[in-house]
Design goal:
Butyryl-Coa Dehydrogenase, subunit A, domain 1, 12 helices, Butyryl-CoA Dehydrogenase, subunit A, domain 3, alpha+beta, four-stranded mixed β-sheet, Butyryl-CoA Dehydrogenase, subunit A, domain 2
Amino acid sequence: MTKLDMGNDVDAVVSRLRALLDGPGLAVEQTMLKTGWVSALPQLHQLREQVKRLHAWAPHLQPTEGGLGMSLVEFAKVSEVLGRSPIGHWIANCQAPDIGNMELMHSHASHELRTRWLTPLMAGDIRSCFAMTEPEHAGSNPVWMSTRAVLDGGDYVINGHKWFTTGADGAAFTIVMAVTDPAGLPHKRATMILVPMDTPGLTLVQNIQVMGERGGDHHSHAELLFENVRVPYANRIGHEGQGFELAQARLGPGRVHHCMRWIGICERAFDLMCRRAVQRELSPGETLGRRDTVQHWVAECRADIDAARLLVLEAARLLEKGGVMLARDQISAIKFFTANTMQKVLDRAIQVHGALGLTDATPLALWWAHERGSRIYDGPDEVHKQSLGRSILKRYMQ
């Protein structure tokens, strides 16, 4: 019997998480916004314990692993409510990049790697990161990279330069994408390798300053340097040359996770915008909400958010039914459509708040700074649009 069978249906889990985030979570969120993620960590850990007591921990994991055993569609609904707060996914231990690494290691890591690294990761005792993007190469071409892993006896020796490695600061290990067969076919050259962060030769150069903020711990993006980093051949994830294939498999569910989090952001921003519109007076008795422009924004945002949600849930359903190939078009569509919807909703919410929207009194400014990257990472808008358009037109040519 799963935890969900025992009365923890999706709606109940969503309700409990919403109450936590709208209650004690708000004070912790404010601490994080004003003084940073690291200073809020003691309170964040307390919230994690509350999530466990609420039986809402790790909804994506099986009950035997301490989770709720939710399907992708069920988790998508939980991800939306967690997305309403910048701290939501972390306190439930389903934050990126850890959730993707958990899924990857479940299916393709050895028993030894799962025991040593996956078990504490699922328990929330450690964090991880994923090192793929390189500053020297366009991230939109994932098969073009310079990081190399060369076999030397029973070890890989890794040399390379990575950046925008989310959450590397304080992580216990990284999964790095490195070329192991430079002469191979483009999509068969790279391999994923687990590297403990304290391995000699691995240097965290800096937390990259993003929109004026370096961040810290989970809430950061790092630049990493690999200089003759030596790890056992047994640290390989999957088969040699399978890196690109595993990355693509990881990105399917990952994009659903991201998009439902973005819809949660949209819903919170929409709620803040509407409250501000009916309360803020331009003159005595004349509120922002009485202006036609604001009313149009509210109507358009409501329609866009609802449309995005339906697109994402359909993509999740197809992904569960037939895998990445069946849901390929939908995965491309949700990535650019939801990201653009979020940017539009955030922009209008900030505009309605005026100067207040630029401050840390609400999460709007933080989201504007950190979520603009949504239209770049995991494939820029232009790549997904081109892919979807090409796929559709191909069907007309048959």
